[in-house]
Amino acid sequence: MNTFERSLTTTHIFFLFLLSGLLSVTGKAFRRAGLIAGVLLSMLVLSAHADTVTNTVADAEPDLQGAWVGTLQVGDNKLRLRFNVSREQDQPYQATMDSIDQGASGIPVSRVTVKQQHIELEIDAAQVLYVGEYQVASEQIQGQWQQGGQAFDLTLSRQQQEARKPQDPVKPYPYIEEQISFNNTAAGIQLAGTLTRPADTSHAVPAVVLISGSGPQDRDQQLLGHRPFLVLADYLTRQGFAVLRFDDRGIGKSGGTFYQATSLDFATDVAAAVRYLQQRIEIRADQIGLIGHSEGGLIAPVVAQQQEGVRFLVLLAAPGITGAEISANQFEQMLV
After folding, report:
1. In this structure, what is the dihedral angle of CA atoms 34, 37, 38, 39, given to the nearest 10 degrees?
2. How confident is the model at residue 163 (pLDDT cuts 50, 70, 90)?
3. Which of 63, 141, 145, 180 has the least CB density, counted as fewest CB within 10 Å?
């Protein structure tokens, strides 16, 4: 029996009691009894309504967007983990995981399942399943990390937004900033990014495209509160370069699907970015270069070989071993 049903039953009993005494209740006593009954009925109905609202709030699907952190303890070892959860309007949740103490970041979460308060995060690459229940009162997710036939308790708490890093540029900028989009026609997707260029528009300027590293990255290559591509774009633009940085396909405001793409697919996205810059009258088409970080340092030479008009390359922490060796080393570090 729910609260509302209990309320009606209690009220019904009260009115039966009132009815049984009607013959002996007259005048003011009768009116007083009726008033009391009315007040009691109103209180009980309001209580039932409040209980219904509370249950509705508890059953509502929580907004999981943001960073969720927790500490996984296995024996004497503790491992801090962070899940970065995002969702575009009317789209399923997407997430990545950072293993903070192991220095691994951007690990793809294969599936995010949310059914009211029940939450599941699956990481196929590590054969991990996290199953938890969202707690409305504490705003935490209490659950278990399941891997290799074992289960470990893991409570996730929402991480408050980190303060701006001191190296982040502060608006207003002394240059022009545009939110742009361009098409990768071969892939049938549209990519979104930011173009910064010098305020002096009297002449065309050289330009660079920033290429992000492995894992799903936004245009700023945001990681642990840092925005290295934002900082790099700011510096280069102040030195007279136009800089284009964009969200990886399937990430942020870019279309497409990230998790099914290869390095060669990402190379076609960068080539599309180069062609976009070649069409801008503010850009010198004969002075366009690429700056690639990590996997981006692998992609940049591929683009330079395939796309006409790339005049120079800058490779930051580019891989010196095969991708298979890199992946093996990364997963080995995750399991240490």
Report:
1. 120
2. low
3. 63
| Per-residue tokens: 37 | 């009954």
pTM over 0.70, yes/no: no
Is residue 164 included in any domain, yes or no? no
d(CA 229, CA 93): 25
Q: How many domains is the chain built from?
A: 3
Same domain, 310 and 210: yes
Cβ(59)–Cβ(47) below 8 Å: no
Task: Using alpha carbons, select from 141, 165, 163 the residue that is nearest to residue 154.
Answer: 141
What's the maximum distance between 2 C-alpha atoms anywhere in the chain?
A: 104
Segments forming the whole domain that contains residue 33: 3-59
99 belongs to a structural domain: yes
One domain for residues 201 and 298: yes
Within 10 Å of residue 129's Cβ, how many Cβ atoms?
18
Q: CA nearest 136: which of 249, 57, 224?
A: 57
CATH of the domain at 179: 3.40.50.1820
Closest CA to 8 of 50, 39, 45, 38: 45
φ/ψ bin of 107: left (φ > 0), alpha (ψ from -120 to 50), beta (otherwise): beta
Cα–Cα distance, 107 to 248 (Å, whole number): 15
CA R_g for the chain: 29
Q: How far apart are CA 263 and CA 138, in angstroms?
A: 42
> What are the pLDDT digits (tens) for 243-300?
999 999 988 889 998 878 999 999 999 999 999 999 999 999 999 999 999 999 999 9
